[in-house]
Fold this sequence. Notes:
The chain is mainly β and 397 residues long. Helix content is 2%, strand content 48%. The protein has one domain (14-299): Regulator of chromosome condensation 1/beta-lactamase-inhibitor protein II (Methylamine Dehydrogenase, Chain H), CATH 2.130.10.30. Strands 5-6-7-9-8 form a 5-stranded antiparallel beta sheet. It has a 5-stranded antiparallel beta sheet with strand order 10-11-12-14-13.
Amino acid sequence: MRHPRHSGPVAVSLLAAFILGCSGDTLEPGPGTTTASLAVGERHACLARATRSWCWGTGSDGQLGIGVTATAAAPTELPDGIEFVALDAGQFHTCGLDAEGVAFCWGSDRDGQLGLGAPAAERCGVFPCATRPQPVAGGLRFEALAAGARSTCGLTTTHRVYCWGLNSLGQLGIADAVEQCEDGPCSRTPLAEGSGRSFVSLTAARMHTCALAADGAAFCWGFLSVPVAGRHTEPSFQPNARPIEGFSFRQLSAGTRHTCGVTSDGRAYCWGADAVGAGPDLLEADHPVAVAGGIRFRSVHSGFVTSCGLDDSGAAFCWGANASGEVGTTPVGGTQVFDHPVAVSGGLTFRALEAGSSTYCGITDDERVACWGRGEFGELGAGNANSVAPVFVAGVE
């Protein structure tokens, strides 16, 4: 994707990392910590805090956990009484972990992404769904979850990755088709990722998953975009975990067609197609390239065609396409692309940040939740309008 550009100024357990609020992404502890967990999906968001959980945005597939609703523009509390310590959101589904590591999922089960062992009993339109949290089959205990568009992966307490849902592009980390779902081969039960490696974290996006080993080695599988000469080639389908060679990362975040990571010295690198952030001459790369601007990041978080990062102070910077205000500044429009990180409007500092498709939400230093970007489906939790500046989500204290 080529558009006019605007250059801007230039050892915790995984369960603890999720409690810090990073849905699917490893996050080292920063200056502040939080016991809340955020998850942002395609058009919805959820928050778990202490003994309570809320969701808001589009709920037509049951992904809000409160039945079927077109839009909940303000947070609605989940009624089931499960005390979640970690949440993650896919395209139209949500998953969470309780304090014992038991995984629950709800929302669309079109391609087995809820992992229930059989199609969900309810229907949202013509496809199976669950409108309340349901336990994932298999009896595994997890430290972390990462939800893709129509698949989900979990990191067990023994540091193995198990995945379930759609496997049309190898996003489960295995080559074999197990079952047949609406959109292709799938598994409705968690299956072990094929490499047999031990990992300490994982992150998932629309059609690919990445995981981090204890030594900082990164591995990815699923749809791996291999761009050449500034244009997208035929997509590469990689069911086997492929190493990202030459780098040691402390944190990873998968976006729709790109991935970003932070090295031990706080340098951010991105690769894939869209939102690389390396300057005006490079939007696509088949290897990690340094994000321009020289900012040392605590964490990075990748969305559809944007990425955002938190520096050591908790200030947020974003880059990429700004169609809905997701870069957090002006100008806004379908042809507006920022090829360098720019500061998000409002001057807030965050303890945790979460990326959705075109929406970002964070937990501020004073424990409030603020979101910016696309909001037309209620995903900002403050009405139904887009916003370039973070707006506070009320009712989740």
